[in-house]
Amino acid sequence: MSELGAVFARCRDEDRAALVAYLPAGYPTQHDSELAVTTLAESGADIIEVGVPYTDPLMDGPVIQDAADTALRAGFRFAGLFRCVEAARAAGAVPVVMSYWNPVLRYGPDRFAAHLSAAGGSGLITPDLIPDEAAVWTSAARTHGVDPIFLVAPSSTDERLAMTTAACGGFVYAASTMGVTGARTAVGGGARVLVDRTRAVSDLPVCVGLGVSTGDQAAEVAAFADGVIVGSALVAALRDDSTREGLRALTEELAQGVRRR
Amino acid sequence: MSTHAETAAAMVAGRFGDFGGRYVPEALVAALDELDRARLDALTDPAFQAELQELQRTYTGRPNPLTEAPRFAAHAGGARIFLKREDLNHTGSHKINNALGQGLLTRRMGKTRVIAETGAGQHGVATATVAALLGLECVVYMGKVDTERQALNVARMRLLGAEVVAVDHGSATLKDAINEAMRDWVTNVEHTHYLLGTVTGPHPFPSMVRDFHSVIGAEAHDQLLALTGRLPDIVCACVGGGSNAIGIFHRFVDEPSVRLVGLEAGGEGVDTGRHAARFATGVPGVLHGAATFVLQDEDGQTLESHSVSAGLDYPSVGPEHAYLNASGRAEYHPVTDAEAMDAFALLCRTEGIIPAIESAHALAGALRLGREAGPGTHILVNLSGRGDKDMDTAAHWFGLLDAQGAPRE
Q1: Residue A207 has pLDDT above 80, yes or no
Q2: N or C: which end of chain B has fewer CB within 10 A?
Q3: Which of B209, B235, B267 finishes a domain?
Q4: B207-264 pLDDT, tens per residue?
């Protein structure tokens, strides 16, 4: 079982869902981002998803777009990504990275997998890389013991759900609604249907992302998913309170939420 | 073995050799599959083709003429230069060819809303036009910088009933408009078609948009044969995303004696860093759903491009061009802002034709290629658009206006 698999097994034993918390590396500065992922780990995040700021984040809504702009203007470089991964690991969480494909492609997929693994990263979420195009990546990931995590969507056919989950390791990222990242007032009934359809073709844990911003929403999703992914709300909490107390409070609320299934 | 057969073999599953593909969120795959089925059905449906051809004839004004430009060619080392007059199409550029085709496909798929990105505004105008014609709701995303330098086209789109959204993220130019259109599409894909305006993006866009523009080269081929009795020696076209270039190249890819030359924006000079010379300085990567050449830094972050022409100001290029470059079938050279504006002025004064600044890059290429190739060379140039939209830029470039915007004595 992969290290990510062990996280979900432990959560199952505790009869709860896992909290998967996203923040971009280098935001608002490199140093602050390392402190912020540490705060996430200390406040109850099981898995920390460290984002790679990118100039063309076409799956992201305004909150994460602005954070990526800020991080890039502050001079984010790839070495900073791995320092965030190391910080998350040192604080006791299991880190994964989320990156659009071009930065990984430019870094070199094999080199990236090796350096991610060396930094203590367990997986890579690729929002714009589908398994159809991922032969080079999945091979590099396998070589270095990194889990390739692909997305499934409400519009995915059953055939594509089976193909995509077969290519995944660690967990499956279920995008709850058709759209980009960002807080929503309701997560949508489609999420449960997608989780059920995914479970019908795969034994991997299924985590739900897109739209969750409160402890109540986390509890709602935890009732039917193995993990709850929260991104934009955490980025906004960090943006609005540089002391990270807001970030800590929200993470604790979400961690309680995933235990209230 | 013909190059076309090799090309076809390389196109399996939407790839052009190492380029193309689909680098998109999973949420869009179903829509791309639906689109691929619809466009392949339409390609072989006589009713669809008849409707498209009728609109090309009665609405666009096709076939448009082929014009020989002898007084312009007098500056090109004795070459003969022939202009394919896409500037005479309704809406003023080649963009209407693709907009009409995709507009009809939108209706065929039962969708009621189209979205589009635009740089210079020509594709946005063409899309707004087709949306009005077919009764579709239309939203056009345009970089904020571009809305300012192409303000007249923004007004045209609004007159045609489209909503124009100024995109203020990132570099606030064409690439950011595409990002925003993709975000809209993934959210509203059930009833919305993304009427992408060039030969990039995920499969099937590069092939589909090429097919809708291939009428350019097909007409020019027949017109040239009727006029000169032979194939051209060189076909040249400007390359931003590359739709007008692929449209005129496609008919000639099979003809090994014909040199295919794409001219990309050299901006202030390839060594200044302010340019859109993807082939001269870019490296293979992925942007906007396709594997292709991309202007990027060593971390894979997209670099900002620069060109006096908004339509060529794009850090990436269609994947089939990347393939034609890699295979050696076509060649790509940069043309600077200054060279393009010189050619722009020369065509105005020698032929009475005001070209789009994009197309002026192809004209500058023709002058250079003619001088290199020598007397008797036949050069076909795609005059992809007219320059009405560029009057403000040109008037400032040539010092025709004073600081208040009034004519200078």
Answers
A1: yes
A2: C
A3: B209
A4: 999 999 999 999 999 999 999 999 999 999 999 999 999 999 999 999 999 999 999 9
- Write down the ipTM of this complex: 0.96
Domain count, chain A: 1
Which structure tokens are listed for B17?
């050799």
CB contact under 8 A, A106 and B300: yes
- CA B298 to chain A, closest CA, distance in angstroms equals 7
- At A238-255, the pLDDT tens digits run 999 999 999 999 999 999
Across the interface, whether the CB atoms of A58 and B285 are under 8 A apart is answered no
- pLDDT of A176 reads 86
A128, A160, A180: residue with CB nearest B187:
A180
- B chain contacts of residue A164, beta-carbon cutoff 8 Å: 26
CATH number for the domain including A194? 3.20.20.70
Q: Are residues B136 and B50 in the same domain?
A: yes
> CATH number, domain at B189?
3.40.50.1100
Domain's final residue, options B170, B186, B209: B209
Question: Is A34 annotated in the active site?
Answer: no
pLDDT digits (tens, 9 = 90+) for B373-399: 999 999 999 999 999 989 989 999 999
State how many domains chain B has.
Answer: 2
Q: Would residue A56 show up in a list of annotated catalytic residues for this protein?
A: no
Query: What would the pLDDT profile of A131-179 be if each residue is shown by its tens digit?
Result: 999 999 999 999 999 999 999 999 999 999 999 999 999 999 999 888 8
Residue range of the domain that includes B127: 22-57+96-209
**Rounded to a whole number, what is the distance in Å from the CA of A84 to chain B's nearest CA?**
17
Nearest CA in chain B to A180: B183
Interface of A with B in 121-180 (CB under 8 A): 127-130, 132-133, 150-157, 160, 164, 175, 178-180
Average pLDDT over residues B332-355: 98
